[in-house]
Amino acid sequence: MISVNDFKTGLTIEVDGAIWRVIDFQHVKPGKGAAFVRSKLKNLRTGGVQEKTFRAGEKVAKAQIDNRKMQYLYESGGSRVFMDLETYEQIELPDEQIKDELKYMLENMELNIIMFGSEILGVDLPNTVMLEVTATDPNIKGDTSSGGSKPATMETGLVVNVPFFVNEGDRLIVNTADGTYVSRA
């Protein structure tokens, strides 16, 4: 058991039979009344995000999550195949379970697979990934690097707003948390 006062971003907890990851939290001490913790939690089974409020000092169960290092190999009819880098065992995850993560995944990429016991909950992406621009509007003379942005389609199909100086074929670093442009690679 862990106190909600000890919440950290990325912590996994078990509440009401579901496995949740703490995305954001805030300790609130109102002038009148008891203190509480307002949190934003992501359900690791369904992918849904929910805001939940806990009384200060309330105890919740900490979920024992394992991360197994695996390599994404290929698509196989509505699912994706991953290989354990230690045992060479292969597993398949349905596209529906990892639909948000697919926008950042390239073949042969090494990722962490999130497991709760023997149940596979999903994929844990790195903070940033390097993707190539496959389509974007051409640069127009007079555009500056500091003003404005244009949409660019990456090799995975992800659309990212990028500065005007970015061209097709450029390799970019993209933040996986919110899908934003970080820099050129």
UniProtKB/TrEMBL annotation:
Protein's name according to its UniProt entry: Elongation factor P
UniProt function note: Involved in peptide bond synthesis. Stimulates efficient translation and peptide-bond synthesis on native or reconstituted 70S ribosomes in vitro. Probably functions indirectly by altering the affinity of the ribosome for aminoacyl-tRNA, thus increasing their reactivity as acceptors for peptidyl transferase.
Keyword Cytoplasm in annotation: yes
Protein family according to the UniProt entry: Belongs to the elongation factor P family.
The protein's annotated pathway: Protein biosynthesis; polypeptide chain elongation
Keywords in alphabetical order: Cytoplasm, Elongation factor, Protein biosynthesis
Residues of the Translation elongation factor P/YeiP central domain: 67-121
GO molecular function, one term: translation elongation factor activity
Compartment annotation: Cytoplasm
CDD domains referenced in this protein's UniProt entry, alphabetically: S1_EF-P_repeat_1, S1_EF-P_repeat_2
Biological source species: Enterococcus larvae
Predominant place of localization: cytoplasm
